[in-house]
Amino acid sequence: MDNLIIAGKTYRSRLLVGTGKYKDFTDTRAAIEASGAEIVTVAIRRTNIGQNTEEPNLLDSVPPSKYTLLPNTAGCYTLDDAVRTLRLARELLDGHNLVKLEVLGDPRTLYPNMVETLKAAEILVKEGFDVMVYTSDDPIAARQLEEIGCVAIMPLASLIGSGMGILNPWNLQIIIDNAKVPVLVDAGVGTASDAAIALELGCDGVLMNTAIAAAQHPILMASAMRKAVEAGREAYLAGRMTKKIYTASPSSPVEGVINSVSTINTNC
Amino acid sequence: MIQLTINGETRQFDQPITITQFINQNNLQGKRIAIERNGEIVPRSQFSEQLLTEGDRLEVVVAVGGG
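ok -> structure tokens follow
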């Protein structure tokens, strides 16, 4: 079986999805179902105190018994905030160690602050977390994160929520070729072909939220993404043909086209 | 009277209270929450023992939708 293995645990799906930006938890749940994802990201936020006590809880719609939850540090701009958020997440999820680390550097681009990310990763790994880490597509940063002990390297394909697709396949390729842990594209996927390309390049998986949640029909897009990830992975495993620049090669027989001049000598 | 900062907001309490009492007063019982007190995680098992005192800073969090 061709499975994705992260921190020793096996997953059938190579598509990881977020739970943000949906109309309600019913849509969230339906989209996750359609995507086939087994790993689902959640954010950690302050709860309302003393108001709206009947507010529905995300974890009732996305139960930890059914999905592997991946708490993130979205919105954290310092290593201190990120580390504290994930300690809270671990407590919230009963000792669950698998986390997504992101330390942002700029609210406009949501580009990661790699200096803080590297420091935070080091602390979290020492504290026993299995860290899947959001990173720039810098191959050196990716290597350093792997050396620290992160269990998955997750470079951006383009800015978070931009839907701009894979802007630098060459850097992704270098990261993939060098990494011994899974590499997942995190951020930037806009439509199914982007996800397929990521897997064709050799990425082990893709994590996305906005591409599904902000589609006109999120549940249909979730289904499309599931197929794209499967198709991309199969194409990667199948090994694509070599590109032949400026050289055509017909697929049909060259001989026997009607009304063509025969070169065969029949000796009559 | 003591003053606590809870999720960034200042709140007054007549007397020191345990975390469990705080949870019950604010209808958070049975909710899936995690609590940090002055930057340190408070394990659920200690909610009934830890007494909140003047100047304590609490963060009370839940899981929400995110990517």
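Residues 19-25 of chain B form the longest helix (7 residues).
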